[in-house]
Amino acid sequence: MDGNGGDSGSVATPVQQRAHEAWRIYQHYLDKTTPHATYRWIGTLVVALIYCLRVYYLQGFYIIAYGLGIYLLNLLIGFLSPLVDPEAAGVSDGPSLPTRGSDEFKPFIRRLPEFKFWYSMTKAFCIAFLMTFFSVFDVPVFWPILLCYWIVLFVLTMRRQISHMMKYKYIPFSFGKQKYGGRSTSGSRAD
Length: 191
What we know:
Layout: H1 14-32, H2 37-58, H3 62-80, H4 86-89, H5 114-131, H6 143-168
Helix pairs in contact: 2-5, 3-5, 3-6
């Protein structure tokens, strides 16, 4: 208790209360989008298209686009990487596919989950879009050099990531439900 007879940590100004309430509403709607991955990604593609059209129309802000590209590449690496890196944990200690029937199956767990990947990507496009309204960020650069450098960086990074996936035998994607070739359930027997 403070000298005024109240808890000093529980007193919030009306501005703080409004900000907290706005954050709760925002979080509520963000949480409601969680199961709708397809619609979330379509929305992100629309935001990305609007950003690209703005940069193309203005013929500037290439340094912002380059920074955005580097950030998105960093997010992609986090999305494709396992939570526990087998290289850092040692090959025998890291997660691996079961090789015997008695081995326990350990699913692939991402370092950056899909929702956080989507949220960070969408936020990055929105921030980059807002930055195009301020001329201080329009640094004159020769954009083909930045594009070539980004492509080289992308190719080298992806080559390293793919070789890491092949070395430790993990695939960061699952396409539907697993199908097993067990016994036939047709009911007909050849006697």
